[in-house]
Write a structure and sequence with these properties.
CATH architecture: Sandwich
CATH superfamily: Cupredoxins -  blue copper proteins
Structural class: mainly beta
Number of strands: 9
Strand content: 35-45%
Number of helices: 0
CATH topology: Immunoglobulin-like
Strand order of the largest sheet: 3-9-8-5-6
Shape: globular
Distance between the termini: 20 Å
Amino acid sequence: MLLALSGVVPAHAADPTPGVITVAAFLYLPGDTEVPELPLVVEQGASLTFTSADTVGGFHSIVSEDLRADATPLFWAGQIGPGQVSEVNGVPGLEPGTYRFYCSNHPDMNGLLAVAPA
């Protein structure tokens, strides 16, 4: 039996730290497959924010290669332009594992999202 003392919250009850991914110069940072030394890792249940710092690439998006049974992506963020920010939908519900994603406007832009167990 776990007892919580007044003002003390068990570590497992805390919300996971949100993640941030930025697109710049046609690269997802962190997480781009061209830059494997900068992995994109979020803890299971965490949210992920997508920002654009790309001043030459136009609009970018994030679309999971893996699909649900209804043929929709497991996670996605709509197209954003320079200076814009969007939540990546579906990330908090992902199971631990590694997921590939791409930009719908630039199919050569690819990334990997690793979801670590909470």
